[in-house]
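Much of what follows relies on a compact textual record of a protein's fold. Here is one such record, which you should read through line by line:
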Amino acid sequence: MSRALLALRYLTILPTSRRRHAGLEDLGRAAPWFPVVGAALGLALAAVDAGSGRVFPPLLAALLTVTVWKLLTGGLHLDGLADCLDGLSGRDPATRLAIMNDSRIGTFGAIGLILFLMLELAAVSELPHGARWRALVAAPAIARATPALLGRLFPAARAGGQGAVFSAGLDRAAAPASLAIALVVAVAVLGWPGVVALAVGAASALGLGAFLARRLGGVTGDVLGAGVELAELAVLLTVSAWAHARP
């Protein structure tokens, strides 16, 4: 249970007995709990969306849901996405890592976040009613299985960084266990299309990880966070495409 609490403390802003970064060295060992926390987050989002949908039009309800989504996670993964986008402007791996380590947000990061959140908002707002809550539960669970996958497949770009500490704590079973839990959640709420959603979400995170690993010489905590955000969006888009393609 200590690992479950560590995962909850790190991935959300919910108050716990210790600070968010306490026990960071054990974070990799807590990786199989990440999709469990993601599923719990998704259930909370589904409840928020259901409640707001009773009193607000779909677009406004979706905006409130996405806002709560990012508030509950403390913008943790959005920060990683913005840093990665800013880092792409560097001329070499060392410069890119230095830019990513800067707490200030640059032009690429700001524009990227705006476009990304617009895509996510549109994806949620346009989901059919029956598929909306299912996607909101599946997306956070699937996306939070990807850090263990990226951490096992790619080397750390920066020794001593959060990505390196996380990857060092991963064992061989971490990625398969995380993906298996995410698969159970995805199939439970989406049926067999959940397998497709998991495949697309994981492939999106892997593609981003491979691209950034070449540009940075490895992955960082920011890359893992960006992978989570991209996987969430990929799952939402997959469910939306599936729902709208059906006659």
Notes: The two ends are 45 Å apart (CA to CA).
